[in-house]
């Protein structure tokens, strides 16, 4: 048998790796059965295979090819599942991040609204306090004016009463020179 070329090795490997090719097992089987003249069997020493060996080798190659196909399919599906899981988790993480960001924005908006309500309440409280104070001052002023008016009225009434009493006394004093007082002191019992 002639030497193997680089093309033969490439054909054997076919991208499956050296030890994954069933043909390699046939070559190894041939080598260890005396392919180089080390065995006692003359036919094996010349490198020929029996039909059974060839059939077994081809059957083994088919089985190994199917196993490699199943393995590649499992790896491919596993890789696809892993990729889908990673993509799914990435989308979940992205959605969680987006939800967190949206919640943070909403909280900031709520805090701004609360601050605006607080400012409005402070403004309204100040306005109410100022209005109450102003109305209190107006009420005090009105009560004070009413009390002053009452006191003026009482003073005028007292002054009028005093003036009338003085005038009456003056009239009586003036008349008393002309009209004698009666014994009862009212001046009414004067006899003419």
Shape: rod-shaped
Average pLDDT, rounded to a whole number, is 76
Radius of gyration equals: 65 Å
Beta strand count: 0
The main β sheet shows up as:
none
Strand content: under 5%
Task: Decide which structural class fits the backbone.
Answer: mainly alpha
Distance between the termini: 194 Å
Q: Work out the helicity level.
A: over 70%
Count of runs of 4 or more consecutive helical residues: 4
Low-confidence stretches: none
Q: H/E element string?
A: HHHH
Give the topology, please.
Blueprint (H helix, E strand, L loop, with lengths): L5 H8 L8 H11 L9 H4 L5 H126 L16
Verbal overview:
It is a single chain. With 192 residues, the chain is mainly α. It has four helices and no strands. The chain has helices at 6-13, 22-32, 42-45, 51-176. Helix 2 runs antiparallel to helix 4. The protein is rod-shaped and about 190 Å long. The chain starts with 5 loop residues before the first helix and ends in a 16-residue tail after the last helix. The mean pLDDT is 76.
Concise structural overview:
The chain has 192 residues and is mostly helical.
Question: What features would you highlight for this structure?
Answer:
192 residues, mainly alpha, 4 helices
């Amino acid at each position: 048998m002639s030497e193997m070329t680089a093309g033969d090795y490439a054909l054997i490997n076919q991208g499956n790796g050296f030890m994954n090719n069933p043909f390699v097992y046939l070559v190894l089987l041939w080598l260890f059965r005396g392919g180089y003249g080390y065995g006692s069997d003359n036919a094996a020493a010349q490198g020929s295979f029996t039909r059974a060996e060839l059939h077994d080798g081809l059957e083994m190659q088919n089985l190994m090819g199917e196993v490699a196909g199943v393995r590649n399919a499992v790896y491919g599906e596993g890789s696809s599942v892993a990729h889908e899981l990673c993509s799914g988790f990435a989308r979940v993480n992205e959605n969680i991040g987006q939800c967190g960001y949206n919640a943070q924005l909403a909280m900031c908006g709520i805090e701004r609204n609360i601050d605006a309500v607080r400012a409005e309440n402070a403004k309204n409280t100040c306005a109410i306090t100022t209005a109450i104070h102003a109305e209190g001052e107006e009420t005090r002023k009105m009560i004070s004016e009413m009390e002053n008016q009452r006191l003026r009225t009482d003073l005028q009434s007292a002054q009028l009463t005093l003036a009338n009493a003085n005038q009456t006394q003056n009239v009586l004093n003036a008349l008393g020179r002309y009209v004698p007082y009666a014994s009862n002191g009212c001046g009414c019992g004067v006899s003419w």
